[in-house]
Amino acid sequence: MKLTFLGTGTSTGIPEVGCTCQVCTSDDERDKRKRVSALVETAETRILIDCGPDFREQMMHVPFERLDGVLLTHEHYDHTGGIDDLRPFCQFGDIEVFADSLTCTHLRERLPYFFREQLYPGVPRLNFHVVEPYKSFYIKEVEVCPLLIMHGALPILGYRIGTLGFITDMLTAPEETMRSLDGVDTLVINGLRMRPHGSHQTIEDAINVARAVGARETYLIHMSHHAGLHAVTAGQLPPHVHLAYDGLQVEVL
Q1: Fewest Cβ atoms nearer than 10 Å: which of 27, 71, 77, 216?
Q2: What is each CA distance from 90 to 39, 123, 182, in whole angstroms?
Q3: CA 41 to CA 3: how far, in whole Å?
């Protein structure tokens, strides 16, 4: 299974508009971070995780092929703002979108023109499916298990996809989620910055979760400019914990 990181930044992206810090003005391409999104691919199946406002630009850099499913972690704009840009992929057929009930409800309210009987020409043809934590389902041959994650006080979803664990925007997680991650090969998890935040883990928090899970490799995502320069922060991490960056591809065993 191949994992491609389409975006690894926090809600403002990096560079942040108007910021002149050393990260936002860095010439290192690894410091330029779009909003979180990823592609998971097997020989038969292609799955998108989150579809934020940078989706169109992100997909200009990967082959144009069918999307067999879209997994949404939660309703926030930095994870759903690119939904309308799924329309070119509908030439391959309807797109199946999986999310919790709150996300599905809010997207129906935010994008009512997707759901009218008389659809505007060119509107994406999306089939929404409500999923629940710990109730697995399949996208073609790939087993997907939603996981309950707490984004501050907001319950959202992470996903276990075969031997991949994908978590973003987490502050805490219940024990059942930690148990559900047992045996994953590759863990993707958010680490916003060094200082505590009210709804996101710190990088130290993410490292502690990585130790508890014990995956072969762990990749940090959803980083702000306060996480520091990639070249510096990456060198401070323990073995087998890495800063992901936009465009990185890894094999999940």
Answers
A1: 27
A2: 17, 9, 36
A3: 7
